[in-house]
Every structure is written in C-alpha cells, then in structure tokens.
Amino acid sequence: MSNIKARKVSFSWEGTPLHWVPGDPFTSHTINVLHLLLPAGERWFVHVYKQVLPYIRDEQLRADVVGFIGQEAMHSQAHDEVLPHLRELGLDPTPYTAQVDWLFEKLLGDRAPLPGRRGRRWWLMERVAVIAAIEHYTAFLGDWILNAAELDRRGADPTMLDLLRWHGAEEVEHRSVAFDLFMHVDGGYARRVRTWLSGLLVMFFLWQRGVRFFMANDPAPGLRKPTFRGFYVRGKRGLLPSTWAMARSVPRYLARAYHPSQEGSTEQAVAYLASSPAAIAADKGAA
Amino acid sequence: MPRPLSLALTAGAALLARRAMRRRIEGSPLWPLGALAEPISGRPRSRALRLTVAAHEAVAEGVVQLWLEGRELPGWEPGAHLDLVLPSGLVRQYSLCGDPADSSAYTIATRLVPDGRGGSREVHEGLRAGMTVEVRGPRNRFPLAPAPAYVFVAGGIGITPILPMIRSVADQPGLEWRLLYCGRSRASMPYLAEVEKLGAGTGRGRVTVVAEDEDGLPDLDSLFAGVAAELPEGTAVHCCGPEGLMAAVEARIPEGAVLRLERFSGRAAGGGDHAFEVELRRSGRTLTVAADSTVLAAVRKELPDTAYSCEQGFCGTCQQRVLGGEVDHRDELLTDAERAGSMLICVSRARRGPLVLDL
C-alpha cells in the first residue's frame, strides 16, 4: 500500500479578491498563472501516466503512481475551479487557457512525432521524462510556498493560501514518484538533460507570458508592465521564490546522485496536510 | 578572431529575425501557440454549492423538510434531485420538492430510515437550522415526459419528485391527470394537504389517497383500468416509491402508455446492492460483479493495468466508455452529458441489465 492518496478537497472562492495579496497585483498574478497552467498540465500528467501503468514492474511503485494520479487529478480540478471566479472578477482567462489546452492536448498529445510502435514508445518515455523534470520544479515551488511566511504577514487571502499550500504539500509528499517512475521505465541520462532543459524553457516561456497576459487584461487601472526586476525584488522580500534559490535548485536535477527525497521535507508537508482546512474536511469526508 | 564582416552579417540576420518575429506576433497575438477552439480548462465539471439550512422542520411523522438557502441557485425542472454532502462526508440524493422558480432556496424532504445506512439519520438528527451543507447538482434523471395526459403514482416519501410535476401539470389548463398517493398512514404522508387541494381545484386532475391502515392496499388494477378507459394513448405514467410498488405498476402498465420510474438508488433507499454482469466488448470477456464488490475490482482481475486512483468516485481516473446497459451513477464528478456515455467504474453500478464497457 502507498501512503500517497488523493484527498477530496473543495474550496469556495466567493470571498477571494483578484489581487489576493493586498496591494500587490504583480505577486498575485505571478502566482495566479498556476491556475492557467495546472488544469491542463496536470490533466495531461494523468493522461500520460494512465498509459505508462502497463510498463511498471514494481508493485510499490505502481501503488505510488496510482496515488500520484489521483492527487494530480484533484490538483487539476481544484485550480480549474478558480478560473470561473477570475472571470466573475472581470478577468477572462479563456484566451490563454485555450492555448495551454492546445499545447497539452495537441502538441504534447498522443500523436507521436515518430512513426510506428517504437515511435510511440519513444514519445511516451519522452513525456514521462518531461513530467519528472517538471515535478522537480513543482517540488521546489511546493517547498517554497509552505515556507512563504511573508505572504501571511501581508494578509494574503487564506483560502488561496490553503489551496496553494495543500497543493504544495502534496507535491512535496509525492515528489519522488515521477522521478522513480522515470528511472524505472527509462532513466537515460541524455533524456534527463534534454527534458530538463525543454521543460525549463517551456515553463519560463509560459509563465512570463501568463504574467504579462494577466497584467495586461487586469480590469484595475494604472498597472505597470511586469518586469524581471519586479520579480527579483519580490524574491528578495520573500513574496515570490528568490531568483538565487531557483538558480541553485534548477541544475541540481542534473547531478548523477540526484534523488528528489533530498529536496524539501516530507514531515513539513504531512504536518501542513494535518492542519489544512481543506485537507481536514477531505479526510473527514473519507472517514 | 571573427572578422568584422561575419559579425556584421550575424548582427544583421539577428535584427531581421527579431523584426520578422515581432511582425508575426503583432499580426496574430496567439503566435506561436495554437489554441483549442473549445477550451477544456475553466469549465469545472461539477460546482459544489454551500447552502445554509434555513429551516429544518417535521412535515409528517418521520419526515423532515429542509429549506436550503443560497444566492442565484441554478435552475431545475420537476423530477430533479440534489446530491447532499452531509457533515460526515456521506453523500445522499434527495429530490427537489419546492418551487422551481425560486432561485434563493432549494427544498428537500427525507424520511428517517432507522435501519438504513445512516444518511437519513444524519439529516434528521445531525443537521440543524443555521448549519452549512454542501450540495451538488441539481440533476434530472426523472424528467416529466411530454404527454397528452399524466398518471402519477407516489408511495410515501416518493411524493417528493412527483409534487413539483403535479404543480406544473395542474397549471396547464386542459391537461388531464391522475394521482395515486399511497402510504402507511395519513399522518406519515408528507404534503398530503397540498396534494388534496391540487386535486380539488378546478383543473382536470383527480387525486386518490390510500392510507394502508384505513383503506388497505392500493388497488392498482382499477386505477389502470380507469386510465385505459378514460385517458388517451401516449399517457405518461410517472412513479416513485418503494421497489414493490414500482414493480406492481410496471406489471400493470397499459399498452400505449409511457412509463417513467424513479428508483431511490441503493444509497437513498438503504437497500443492498445486487450482483450484475459486465461485458468487456473489446476484450470479448464477460465478468460478474458481486453485490459487495465493484466494477473496478472485477475489471482489474482481468485487466490489471486499468487506471484508477481514489476508488471513491471523485478523481475521475477510472472513467470508462459505456456501450450498453443502464448505469446507476454514484460518482460526484461527471456531468449529465458525460454520464450519458461513460461511468466511473470505481463506484457506479448497473441499474438494470448487463453493462457493456469499451475495454
């Protein structure tokens, strides 16, 4: 049996403002980009992992992957429910999410770029490796949000923080699964480097584009254009991940001795899940 | 050391490339990404509503009515039901029995089943006015069939989906209808006064109330003999009540009439589950799902790589295409459109007949 299991959480968004970090649209929107990327992205994780199940020859890993799939499915649903709320607040995310949907459903869909059985297998393994790389970044972000006390001090919306921290804690909780799965079914170092780089570039591209999309379409008047400097400064203040911490963490994935269990703290994640209002409600529901 | 000429050429090429890209982006803001014509994200499958229990009152012996208040609630048609998520996490379905035009509250009623599976006991004893509950829906799997005339048969608490139907039929002049409302005793039958008033109105309806302690068992034979004699071909019969009543109605249904049944699914009625067969069309195998087992467990014995995760009907991983059979949906996720052609095999079961899955 695996310790990793999906929790049936639900959040109600009626009281959450668009700028849920008071007075800081840039920070709010930089994190809001998650709601644009994750519904499609994590649905795609689930879609790919359903196909990789027959390749798993280890019962413990299979149980972990089954739990991972359910957690990712719930992440996707939970972030998806924020989008209609953004629309009600006057910021329609559809032009952007239609593109993210296209990216994951079509470009990264099941049509392999190479022909035949081997082509299909190659494409599946490539996508499994991309997921392992992305999970390295999400575990970093999960660990960051669990420790982002500055957001509490600024009076950030508690429901949004609970969504992010519940999600972050589950990312930390299951951070080894994607990497273990990749090492189990393939594990090639060249593939690891290649997908690490393409995952990083695509995430960077989508993220900066998402922030610019939000800032340009925000109904509030007088918003400044987002800049990298704005990101750097907030990183130093602890409102966003610090640029240096990211720069140090990103290449760690390339070390031959890398294993996700060295990153983040399972104890902290489990402790948060034991105190998260949404997770408590979900556990009560399951009992 | 690179020569000045190659440096100038490279710089020139870079400038040109940059200009071309900027032009391209300005011409089409979506470049270089495509977009799905019908985006999937941002259209949540089921939206939970949090409603306040505004009133919790007894309307008959052993029956309480809940008045759940909210703002701008989704509309519904007679026959619809809600999924009510109780504080303990149990999910139960209850028919809406209020006014569909009222978008500020939903009304449901439930009978206490002392030896049931705990849902009705929790509604009766655990819920109080002022508490907040989560609901999903409304959904309708018992819609009013369009027909020239109507017969309704309600047994006890089975009046709840029928009541809004009668109100809407009684509103339309010229529509003939009959209601047979039976129960153990008059005191245990909810909404009896309103039902009798509807029948006594100037409309073309007739209400027969049968309380078993006074009148004995309902006489379905004479009801349907009357229906066949007086009502036109294509009369719709809507029935909701205990399994025995519905089976009796089904057996007596006159030729040319349309029958619609609302079964309390296993959960609401507290009845046990039954075993059924599942055909896996692509694998060419047929399995039996035992009463205490699930479709998923049976399928995994044959196809161990079938995907699943939460095993409680909320994550959606085990969704499978259904090619045949009538599904008793017990998940908390799928929309009505998705339910038409698929099911979550971890919790949902067969309502009737063998299920055929695309596996």
- Which structural class do you get from the secondary structure elements of chain A? mainly alpha
Tell me the radius of gyration of chain B: 27 Å
Tell me the fraction of residues in β-strands of chain B, as a range: 25-35%
Counted by DSSP, the helix tally of chain B is 10
Main interface by residue count: A-B, 44 and 32 residues
Largest sheet of chain A: none
Q: Which outline of chain A best applies?
A: globular
Task: List the total number of helices of chain A.
Answer: 13
Q: How many β strands of chain B by DSSP?
A: 16
What does this structure look like?
- The complex is a heterodimer of chains A (about 290) and B (about 350).
- With about 290 residues, chain A is mainly alpha-helical.
- Chain A has one domain.
- Chain A has 13 helices and no strands.
- Chain A has helices at about 25-50, 60-80, 80-90, 95-105, 115-145, 150-155, 160-175, 175-185, 190-215, 230-235, 245-250, 265-275, 275-285.
- The longest helix of chain A has about 30 residues, at about 115-145.
- Chain B has about 350 residues and is an alpha/beta fold.
- Chain B is about 25% helix and about 30% strand.
- In chain B, the strands form three sheets. In chain B, strands 4-3-6-1-2-5 form a six-stranded antiparallel sheet, with helices on one face. Chain B has a five-stranded parallel sheet with strand order 9-8-7-10-11, sandwiched between helices.
- Residues about 265-270 of chain B have low confidence and may be disordered.
- The interface of A and B includes residues 10, 46, 49, 50 and 287 of A.
